[in-house]
């Protein structure tokens, strides 16, 4: 650090909660893979197993990567804001691409098997989550990543962006929970109530999804864990305000 100052550190407890979130995230991905591999035959695109790419992609993209994208501003607290923004947008974009693969998989599988689309509550919530997530990403890139939006306009939109980011994360987890239940009722409706191993494993996946969401949500809502503005960001912010609102920095 400059002038012999100690390097900046993370607030007490933040690193531990982020580590727990990543452990939960990796565990829910492993649990999803175990469920599909052990009881649903695995995943293969050019076969009837194409459908199984859907739950795997949605858990990976719409839950794990989306959650990690939300945590970027808590984890990378002292890096340049431009770099943090780019990583935030990149993770969200990757989540969208993976989720799109999952959506294509389920539509192709339904078409092949003659199953109707978009009739269940799961499909309604899931498609709403994806479409709104795409819109949120496009608006976020337009307002914050690319130049053009004024400082005051960014300031007015930022609370909405933060709120809908958390809301869409919750909606995504809810859609996954609905999808797990729907899949179990379709595949093992006769034995589900007898606490069969597949049902227990899938229910465990649901609990892990909720736990991941709660830990990420806790990190995001702790006021003292928010990313502090760097000195150069404060100066740049004041310059923007001076240019857009006509105020002097000392006014």
TrEMBL record:
Bilayer topology annotation: Multi-pass membrane protein
Catalytic activity: monodehydro-L-ascorbate radical(out) + L-ascorbate(in) = monodehydro-L-ascorbate radical(in) + L-ascorbate(out)
Transmembrane domains' residue ranges: 12-36, 56-76, 88-107, 127-149, 161-180, 200-220
Subcellular location: Cytoplasmic vesicle, Secretory vesicle, Chromaffin granule membrane
This protein's UniProt keywords: Cytoplasmic vesicle, Electron transport, Heme, Iron, Membrane, Metal-binding, Translocase, Transmembrane, Transmembrane helix, Transport
Gene3D superfamilies cross-referenced by the UniProt entry: 1.20.120.1770
Primary location: membrane
Cofactor: heme b
Domain Cytochrome b561: 20-221
PANTHER family: CYTOCHROME B561-RELATED, TRANSMEMBRANE ASCORBATE-DEPENDENT REDUCTASE CYB561
Name of the protein in its database record: Transmembrane ascorbate-dependent reductase CYB561
Species, as recorded: Platysteira castanea
Underlying gene: Cyb561
